[in-house]
Amino acid sequence: GKHALCALLGRRCAWPLLRLSARAGLALRHGGAIRLRLAAASSSSSSSSSGGGGGLRAPDTSLFVPVPLKPVEGAAEEDVGAELTRPLDKVLKNLNKFYKRKEIQRLGAENGLDARLFHQAFISFRKYIMESSSVSADLHIILNDICCGAGHVDDLFPFFLRHAKQIFPMLDCMDDLRKISDLRLPPNWYPEARAIQRKIIFHAGPTNSGKTYHAIQRFLTAKSGIYCGPLKLLAHEIFQKSNAANVPCDLVTGEERVYATEDARQASHIACTIEMCSTNTPYEVAVIDEIQMIRDPARGWAWTRALLGLCAEEIHVCGESAAIDLVTELMYTTGEEVEVRNYKRLTPLTVLDYALESLDNLQPGDCIVCFSKNDIYSVSRQIEARGLECAVIYGSLPPGTKLEQAKKFNDPNDPCKILVATDAIGMGLNLCIKRIIFNSIVKPTVNEKGEKEIDSITTSQALQIAGRAGRFGSSFKQGEVTTMHRDDLLQLKEILSESVPPVKAAGLHPTPEQIEMFAYHLPDATLSNLIDIFVSLSQVDGLYFVCNIDDFKFLADMIQHIPLNLRSRYVFCTAPLNRKEPFVCTTLLKFARQFSRNEPLTFDWLCRHTKWPLAPPKNIKELVHLEAVHDVFDLYLWLSYRFMDMFPDAALVRDIQKKLDDIIQIGVCNITKLIRASQSGAASGAAEDLKSHGRGSLANRLLREGLLTQEMLRQLESEWQDQHRSGRYGLASKRNDQSSSKEMRKKKK
């Protein structure tokens, strides 16, 4: 028995010495003693882990992924049960008895093992013991004593707890993880900003009230300044205005940096997208535009960072008055006062008492607002069928194409007098609109949990869009707003009459440094899992919330199998792309894979991947693909500013992106032809089937007018076939009933 045990342990030793070392290591032999010592130890551990913060919320342990721990494989010929001179089922029986003990479950809970973790840890612990060819000496002795009746199953708890902490390493560092994820004092993240006394000026007012204009005037007169906007178009507009006013200004976005001077010297003024602003560079004046977006579930963190972190003597904040209270409270925590300047709309805006009802009632200067691409295609097709030209603007179009479409619509000498657009016109474009017409007042949204919903537009959204009508300085001195359908008009009036609810909280997002510290403590966790645990443990006060991280997690899961260091992986996961675009997501995956092999992504490689050069689109599907290729070029340029050596051909890519923008403009100018080509090609089969039912002429006419789609045709065909069958069966049934009735009358006679 002694020699067999030594063989199991993989070394030779004397039994008495082993027995003594095991006793010395545990200092515990009987069940009562071990329970007493464990209770005291766990109580001490519990009090230390809480850190005096009894109000801390319990972590979401469903996010804790166990680290795989393989059973020990040794040279022993027999299994643990045999070496213990007891049958294997007796070992299993005692392990299950240990699992069911209420005292053990309570001790587990005191050491951070809730019911779920306790169960997972036990399953792993049992598998480890039963499948290992050898175990440690002290565990072997305890198991042998329990099987012989000389020990108690509670004696296994120290070994079980050690095993649990091996597969759930976060149990041993929960204090550190809580400190890292403590987001209750964001102002302290920016010591440079806290070192100066900043003056905060809030320019509050609705769309078309001149609030941003006054802030920009101060920006232009300052010795140095930075403008932070939500869109590349807005940053580009300020960049152009500033340089036109002989104030040298650089442009900085995620994809490009344009210097005001030919020698590429940094100018004193910068216009940038808000995510790109520097919190280390001192400025005299900073302008933060559209401050109400601090509540945005996905991007709100960027406005919080700019507001708390910009090192500027004066910070001019522009936006809705609904954000005044929150900004004031945030600045109270930094010891800075807020001066509020209120503005009123410069031109009147009237909500009409009648709906448009028909596209035959369109007038020059009308803008029809849709909330989906399909509606854009349908409406523009119907307008073209009436002999009118229309411009088209939606979110996924390149900035250059949007500007060209806006220019076409604004040009008094251009025959295009109608605009069909999504809510992308809400900011970033100067448009001469007389009347806003809501094609619908419901739109897809994403709630705080990241779930998609279809809901009525908010008051803030309605005002932002409606306010584009009657822009100050345009040919229309008064703006009008209405709906396409009469049923929507009353609800739109109610929405516009309501006050915008106050902005209640500012967004936050984990920083790369915080995630790196998390990874140090949890080296085996995936980046997606690290983010989940971070958010689960994070603590924020009532002024803040943690932004939605679903897009980040989607990219993290997508590239998880690619070997990248944590910092590079984090950068790839923050890339601005639409995860609904398979081609763009696939390209990011290829970028990451080649990056991991340390192979530069050259211009030639990108051209092969995108099949450049590309021809003008012949249908909507090809136009959508061109838009995706444009996004791929954007992605390359974005990564080229983070990894210049691995994405070396930014200048060449920027050149072909401009050419692609021109190609997309050709497609958008002919969008009604593309729609016709798409619909006629897709519905040709269905139309042929309908002709066989004698309905071809009507179907073709509806197709030409854009009033039917392929899916609608197929559905109609199916319904007609069902009606045809039911008609035959119904007629046969009726005839049978009539014959039965005649037979009954004959019998009566």
From TrEMBL:
Keywords for this protein: ATP-binding, Helicase, Hydrolase, Mitochondrion, Mitochondrion nucleoid, Nucleotide-binding, Transit peptide
Compartments where found: Mitochondrion matrix, Mitochondrion nucleoid
Annotated organism of origin: Phasianus colchicus
SUPFAM superfamilies for the chain: P-loop containing nucleoside triphosphate hydrolases
Family membership: Belongs to the helicase family.
The reaction(s) this protein catalyses: ATP + H2O = ADP + phosphate + H(+)
CDD domains listed in its UniProt record: DEXQc_Suv3, SF2_C_suv3
Listed GO biological process terms: mitochondrial RNA 3'-end processing
Record carries keyword NADP: no
Cofactor dependence: Mn(2+); Mg(2+)
Name of the protein: ATP-dependent RNA helicase SUPV3L1, mitochondrial
